[in-house]
Write a structure and sequence with these properties.
Chain lengths: 114, 114
DNA sequence: CTGTATCCCACTGGATACTG
DNA sequence: CAGTATCCAGTGGGATACAG
């Protein structure tokens, strides 16, 4: 298969990732959930700047695609726990690579300036 | 260090990545350039749906942060080649993981529907 | 606490045409 | 070919208040 074919396929795959994880907030939410299950309010605090409207919207989308799980507990007032599904856990390598790259690239920028 | 501290740091790192690679088009452009250096028009064709305005804007941003290199050649008409810098090449693991996850997750969706 | 509903504006970015 | 300029619609998403 020629190079350009490979390129198109990979562009397609990246498009798929962007469709699922794209947007302003999803990666933040997933990063937070990656550490442990969180309640709505906890997520709102973790993801600085997000409004409840956006938070619930993103959570619903992530739930719809099967990456996030929503679990309600009948307390008063109601408690809701969000967690990663098994499919959600497969994102670990992506988030891990991003984190690693960030650390590495920040370091690079620093030494460039010296 | 406690868990929540780690979470905040990682959220910060993800934020950095999003600042550099976020938006609608950058990952497409980088994916395309990852295969080989490309001319402006070639990128316009690869990244389906992008307008020249957006393409040049994203390229300038990527150039500013030192991920993409712009090289002009004095032909008539002028030729411009865009390529990844050494720093840009360090993105390979991220793109690779994304691609791999896309393939894997699409497969998962397929078998869920059966 | 966990969301919903509205109002509304800034900005992204699409379409198109044009220049060097 | 490689970009620039302009015009403008759509909408992402902020602020705020409210409901269950």
């Amino acid at each position: 298969m020629e190079n350009n074919e490979n390129c198109k396929i990979e562009l397609d795959d990246i498009g798929f990732v962007l469709k699922v994880l794209g947007g302003k907030w999803k990666l933040y939410i997933l990063t937070s959930l990656y550490f442990e299950k969180k309640r709505f309010k906890q997520l709102e605090r973790d993801v600085i700047g997000i409004s409840p409207k956006m938070l619930i919207k993103e959570l619903k989308e992530l739930e719809a695609v099967g990456i996030v799980n929503r679990h309600t507990i009948n307390t008063v007032p109601i408690t809701v726990e969000y967690s990663l599904t098994e499919n959600g856990l497969t994102l670990k390598p992506i988030l891990g690579q991003m984190k690693q790259w960030a650390v590495q690239f920040k370091q690079q920028l620093k030494s460039d300036n010296q």
